Fold this protein.
Amino acid sequence: MPQPTDPEAAVPAPGSSRIYLWLKRLVNVEREELKALVWSFTYFFALLCIYYILRPLRDEMGIAGGVKNLQWLFTGTFLAMLAVVPLFGWIVSRYPRRRFLPYVYYFFTANILLFFVLFKSNITHAYVARAFFIWVSVFNLFVISVFWSFMADIFRKTQAARLYGFIAAGGTAGALTGPALTAALATPIGSTNLLLISAGLLGWAVYCVKRLIAWRESPISNQPAETPTAESSDADKAEDNAMGGGILAAFHLILKSPYLMGICLLILLYATLATFLYFQQAHIIRDHFADSADRTTVFAVMDFAVNTLTIIVQLFLTGRIVKHMGLGWTLALIPLLLGIGFLVVGFAPVLGTIVIVQVIRRAGNYAVMKPGREMLYVVLGKEEKYKAKNFIDTAIYRGGDVVSAWAFAGLQGLGFTLSAIAYIAVPLTCAWAWIAFRLGKAQEAMANQR
């Protein structure tokens, strides 16, 4: 039992606390797990709140660095990812995540404070803005995957099945709070000062990590969980090593599987059309707003709208869509809607149109398309789920970003207007919808054969 001076004493004692009784109505949490659940919830809340504070700033820095240079920023992000991911995998394969994770966050906190100092000075601001754009994109690559890896270290299988849903809700709450804070504070205190809030939240995340480690190493954490076996211990070790290497093996798996090749095409078309719309958004918002804080506020309001719409669709529509339409039509739905959106943007490339289409596209992706994409891997073996999926989610996805970024710049260089590029995107959405539909049908057929 914690002593009165223990920081965890701030969390009311389980069993008799009102917090426990209230949470018990929402999630099947044991009394001994209450503290870990609260720390995990607030930990994930902090991480996604940070990202959604930084995201509008990143999008603004993309404009500040010059919209004509966006393709270079996407290339820089891709190259930075290729350099960092193997290094991170090497570290993960050799050290327990729960040990080095605080130091990773200390490193990111130092980065945030460095950018704060650089933004406060007026030295090579365009170069700093471009570096920040790339840094946030790489930072985002790690925060979610590392968080869930750490959760796998903390909770056992039976605990995860009961608690992960509520913990994920902490991230959703953070995703709503981050853009709300940015929209409310960007103009009064200045966009740069929001970095200090992010640094403070990252410090809280580190504190949550330490409290979770302390809980996991205490005898009470093992009481509600299954007894560890040699098999489960081996699985834990495999999970620790999962992020290291495997790229070449994944490449061979994809080459000999038409199903995985189809998923690659799905991701490439998704990345291409998302990048086209992102570039159009950057141009239109740059032309509409002269003030940096105003642009940051617009991006934050869009993020808030996306996350609000995402929650509504997830709670009330996603399950019904999959049940009544099947996976094939579910995967094809967002591409078909985006095709209509590009037609509208081509006809009226104005601020209101691009904002509405972008919000619907992103919310549709998070609430419908992404869950559907993840379902495609359910029928595959372990190697495909981990090695091939990791390759597709990183190299294929970011590679698609880079190719489409340069394609957009090339079309502009040839004299194509934003409207013309929007019309060019329409047949690509049709191809995306057709591939998505076929993959959904293939998945259903494979599932019926199991």
